[in-house]
Structure prediction request, 760 residues.
Amino acid sequence: MALQLNESLQNVVDGLSESFTDELIDVYQSSGDTFVRIIADANVEICRYLKEEHHFIYLVDVFGTDRFTSQDRFEVIYNLVSLRDQQRLFVKVWLPEENPEIESVTDVWASANWYERQTYDMFGIQFTNHPDFRRIYMPEDFEYFPMRKEFPLLGIPGSIPLPSSTPDTK
Amino acid sequence: MGLESALGDGYMTSKVDSLVNWARSNAAWPMPMGLACCAIEMMAFAGPKYDASRFGSEVMRFSPRQSDVMIVAGWVNYKMAHAIRRIWDQMPDPKWCIAMGACASTGGMHRCYGVVQGCDNFLPVDAYVSGCPPRPDALLHALMKIQDKIRTEHSVKLDT
Amino acid sequence: MATKKVTDRVTPTFFKEHQEKLYQALEDKHTTIEILEDKDPLSTEMILNMGPQHPATHGVLRLALQLNGEMIEKAKVDVGYLHRGVEKIAENKTYQEFMPYTDRMDYLSPYSNNVALCTAVEKIANVEVPERAHYIRMIGCELARISSHLLWLGTLVMDAGAVSFFIWTFREREKLYDIFDQMTGHRFTVSHARIGGVANDITDTAMAMIKDFANEFPQELTDWHGLLDRNRIFFDRNEGVGVLKTEEALEKGAAGPTLRGSGFAYDMRKISPYARYDEVEFEVPTRLEGDNLARYYVRMEEMHESIRIIKQCLDKLPKGPVRTDNAKQAYPSKDEVYYSMEGMIHDFMMTDTGICPPEGAEAYHAVEAPKGELGYFIQSDGTGHPWRLKIKAPSFANIQILEHILDGEMIADTVVIIGGVDPVMGECDK
Prediction:
C-alpha cells in the first residue's frame, strides 16, 4: 500500500526510519490518519525524538485498546500533534497479555499523567516510573479492569459496595 | 384536655396539623443533588422562566441541614452513592426525596457497571420524575406532588 | 511524671501568649497533643476536602487541598464520581444508537458532541454529507457554543458574587432552548445530527427565531461587557488568578479556551476544518496572560464570533436534502419509511445492523466543542458496533491542569478558578 503523506509527515517517517530502523515496525494509513507502530521498549526514546526533532509538542491523548488476540493483546496509542506543521500522528505499541508493562512518557509530556492513569484503570497496563500511579475512575479497591473484553457490561455483582438503605444509628 | 373532649376527638391536633402542614408544604427548600444533565434542567427550574420560588422553594440550600427535599438529578455512580447517602443521613426529619429523571429513577439509558440502577436502591424516594431530562414543568409537577404528600402528613402526634 | 508540654517544643508565632494559654487549657483538660513536626499545630497545615457535593464545583469534582493557612500548598483532584463506562456501552451499540450517550457527555452543549460522533463515523465509513446538512450542523454547533458559554458566564459571575447574572444568562438560555425545541424537538439533549446528515430540516419558524436571536443577542453581550469589563470587584477576583503560563500550557495538556487564554491559537475549526468552517469568516480570540480574566475575554469574544458565524450560515444556507441518500449509510426519510417497502426495510436494517465501516479501519476526528478539542477515535471490526470507541474529552485535560494552577492560590479563589476553567464532569468521567 503506497502511503500518501504530505511533506512534513514524510519527513517524520523518513527521520524515524533512519534513526530507529530496528524499533519501527510498521507505518500505515487508515481513513487519512497516519499510524506508526513501534516496539514497546523504545517508546520514550521515540517520543522524545518526535517532540524535539519534529515539534510534536502537544500530546492530545494516550489510550489503550483490547485487541483480544492471543498474541499482543493490548495496544497503547499516543495521539500527537505538531503545531508548527499542523500535523497529527498516532504512535502505537503492542503489549502482551501477561504482565503488560510500558514505561511512562510523563518525562516527555507532563500531560500524559492522567491519560496513563486512565489506561491503567481501564485495562490494567502498568506504566513504570509514573509519578502518581493509581486508579482514576474506579475506587482503589476495585479488583477488575472494566474495559477488558471479558469484563461484563453490567459489572460483577458485589465488586463495588452500595451504601446501606437504612440510616446508620449514632 | 377538656377542650379536646368538648370540640371532638382530635379537633385541635388536626387543625394544628393542617396549619403546620400548610406552612411546611409551602416552604419546601430543596437540596439539589445536581449530578449531571438533569442538574441543568434543575437550574432552569430555579431560573426565571419556570420559577420554583413561587412554589416556596425559594432557596436552593446546599447545606443538608437546612433543606427539606433532596432532588437527585442525574445518574448515580457507585462511588457517589456513598456521598449521597451520607448527605441524606445528615438531613433532618421530615425529609422527602425526588428522583429526577430516568437515570435517578431506574438507571435510565445507562445499563452498565458504573451506574446504580435507580437511587431507590439506597434512598427512600417519594416522587419519581420521568424524562431524559424532564422538562422543568415536570419537576414542578413532582414538587407539587410532594407538597400534596406533605399536606396529608400527621405532624402533631397524639399523646393518648 | 514530667509531661512534655506543647509549649516546650513549639513557639507560636502569632499571638504568642494567647496560643500558649490555649495549649495550656487543652492540656489541663487531660488531652495530649501529638506533634509530628516542630511546627505550631494551630496555625499551619490542614487538609481540606472540598467534597464531591459542593455548590460551586461544576458537577461532582472532589478536591483535596493541603492548606498552609489560607494558601493552597498542594491540590489533588479526585474524579470518577460520575463515571459510567460510556466507552464500554459504545461497544454494544450501533453508531446511531450511541448518539444519545454523546449528548449526555458534555451536557451543556450537546449539539457539538453529536456532530463530533457523526463526523468521526463519516470519516471512517466514507459517508458524504449534503451541503445543507453541513450548514445546519454549523448553526447548531454555534448555538450550542453560545449556550455553553452563557452557562459558564452565569455560574462564574455567581461564584464571584453577583447572583442576578445567573438569572439573566438563564433567560437567554431559555430563548436558545426554545430555538432548539423548534428545530429539533428537544430542549437541550437533542441528538439531532444523524450519520449522513441531520434528522430533519429547519422550518421557517425556527429560521425566524434564529434570526431574531442573532439580531438581539449582541446587544445583551454589549450590556454585559459594560457591566463587567470595568467592574472593580470582578477584576480583583479574576486578574492574576489561576495563571497558566504560556510555556506550561501546552506541556500540561490544556485544551480549548484555557489553552487560547494562554497564548496558543489552537482551534480545530481552523486547523482541520470540518463542516464548511473554511467557507465562513471568523477569528480565533487568543490572549497571552493566562489568568482567569484572559479566559473570560476569550469566551466572551467567542460568543461574538459565534453570532457572526451564524449570520453567515443563515445567508449561505443552500437548498437541498438534509441527509445522504445511500441506504447502507443513513436512515431514509420518514416519508419513505411510511409509504414504501424499501424505505421500511432500509429503516429496519439501519436500526438493526447500522452502518458498517470497513474491517480494521481506524479513524480519529476532532471538533471544536466549547470546552476544547473533542475527538472520537473509532476502531472498527466490520460490524455495526465499534470495536473501540475512545472519546478524547477536553474537560479531562483541563481538570488535570487544575492541579497545577491551584498550587499557590488562596483558597477563596478556588471556586473562581474552577469556574474559569469551566469543566464538565460528565465529559471528564466518561
Remarks:
- Helices of chain A lie at 7-19, 43-54, 112-123.
